[in-house]
Amino acid sequence: MTTSGENTTLLPFNTFGIDVKAARIREVRTVQELQQALKSIRPPVLILGGGSNILFTHDWPGTVILNRIRGIEQVRRFKNRVWVRIGAGEVWHQFVEWAVRHQLGGVENLSLIPGLVGAAPVQNIGAYGVELKDIFIRLEAIEMATGKRRVFNRKQCRFGYRESIFKHTAKGKYCITTVTLSLSTDQHQLRTEYGAIQQTLDEMGIGNPGIADISRAVMQIRSSKLPDPARIGNCGSFFKNPEVGIEVLERIREHHPAVPHYPLPDQRVKIPAGWLIEQCGWKGKRVGNTGCYDKQALVLVNYGGATGSEVRQLAHDIIDSVAERFGIRLEPEVNIL
Ligand code: EPU
Question: Structure pTM?
Answer without folding.
Answer: 0.94
